[in-house]
Design brief:
With 340 residues, this protein is α/β, with parallel strands linked by helices. It is 35% helix and 19% strand. It has a 10-stranded mixed sheet with strand order 3-4-5-6-9-10-11-12-13-14. Strands 1-2 form a two-stranded parallel sheet. The protein is elongated. Bound molecules: iron/sulfur cluster.
Length: 340
């Protein structure tokens, strides 16, 4: 299998250029073709000699591979399907008035086993490489229009830390997409060691999938709670400054009878008191064969109002692309409205 170039820095591309018999400065040209012009093949790299392009093609792949499937919602949301090894992963493009947000996957399946999640139920089939993560951005027709990214698709991004950080490096580098970190949000269920690294090494936004503020109840649905208590996750988050450019939000998917009561709202208020943050309430998209039901609209509104009345900014997130996402579990549950 040939080595893929997507994800490499200009420095790393120097070796590629030299191996292909090109001058070292060709690394900058290759980076520009990959990340600015977002071409899929070496043939299009017209300022590189023909012999050089042929040599690159013999030795390497760009890593850009077209999606193998697409579903489009009545509201303009599009779900793309990508082949990875023996399985497939999804990315969802969510257009809104002033932005195009891509919700990307970081793993094929997931090890974390959250009981309400279709991806969790499928088990783990492997980490995506940096090239496979970036391909979700580059190979879709809307690539040039994308403005924001949320790592909220399939998988736990902090369980594939290096590949995800490699993708974020390309998205934010001046030689890459040159996006501001505030255009990117990573969502995690709270894998503490990697979360600390993420907060230390990266200025992008953070979304924590909280879902229940009461540890023993959270454990019923989210096995990660056993290793990493949500109380410790919030303690860690409190050590960082979210009063400026970087923001933290807490994702709270609402289930009837599990986490939608006044008792839960009060526990959440106590847990987050004094933290500069926002809570996003998410409707649970019911999945066939899953025993869980979405909280009622009045229960969600009361929950939201109780948080807001107690000084915690809380919104009910508008759902997008329900008609194409409803069967997907993870994406349907978490990727409902892109970045805030
Ligand atoms: Fe994995 Fe996220 Fe699904 Fe949990 S909710 S199983 S972390 S993909």
């Amino acid at each position: 299998m040939k080595e893929k170039l997507l994800g490499k820095t200009p420095d790393e591309l120097k070796k590629v250029a030299l191996d292909a018999g090109l001058p070292a400065f060709a690394s900058k040209q290759i980076a520009s073709w990959l990340y600015e012009k977002r071409v899929s093949d070496f043939e299009s790299m017209s300022n590189i000699s023909k012999a050089g392009r042929e040599k690159l093609g013999e030795m390497f792949e760009t890593g850009v591979e077209a999606p193998i499937g697409i579903a489009e919602s009545f509201d303009g949301t599009k779900k793309y399907l990508f082949r990875t090894g023996e399985s497939a992963v999804e990315a969802v493009m969510i257009p809104s008035e002033d932005r195009f947000t891509l919700c990307v996957s970081s793993q094929a399946g997931c090890k974390m086993g959250c009981r309400f999640c279709m991806t969790g139920r499928q088990g783990f089939h492997g980490n995506l490489s940096t090239a496979e993560i970036l391909n979700q951005f580059i190979s879709i027709p809307e690539s040039a229009s994308l403005t924001n990214a949320v790592f909220m698709g399939m998988g736990e991004p902090l369980d594939n830390f290096d590949a995800v950080m490699g993708a974020i490096r390309v998205l934010t580098a001046p030689w890459g997409f040159a996006w501001s970190p505030k255009r990117i949000t990573l969502s995690t269920i709270g894998v503490i060691p990697q979360l600390k690294r993420y907060l230390d090494e990266c200025n992008c936004h953070l979304a924590v999938s909280l879902h229940n503020p009461i540890p023993e109840e959270r454990l019923e649905m989210m096995p990660v709670q056993k290793a990493y208590d949500i109380l410790d996750v919030v303690d860690l988050v409190r050590q960082y400054d979210f009063s400026g450019q970087r923001r933290v939000s807490f994702e709270y998917t609402m289930f009837s009878g599990w986490n939608d009561s006044k008792r839960h709202a009060d526990a959440l208020i106590r847990l987050l008191r004094g933290l500069e943050c926002r809570v996003n309430l998410i409707r649970f998209h019911e999945i066939p064969d899953f025993p869980y039901r979405c909280a009622s609209a009045p229960a969600m509104e009361q929950f939201r109002d109780r948080l807001n009345n107690n000084g915690i900014t809380c919104t009910i997130r508008a759902s997008r692309g329900e008609d194409i996402l409803a069967a997907c579990g993870m994406l349907a549950g978490r990727c409902s409205n892109g970045n805030r």
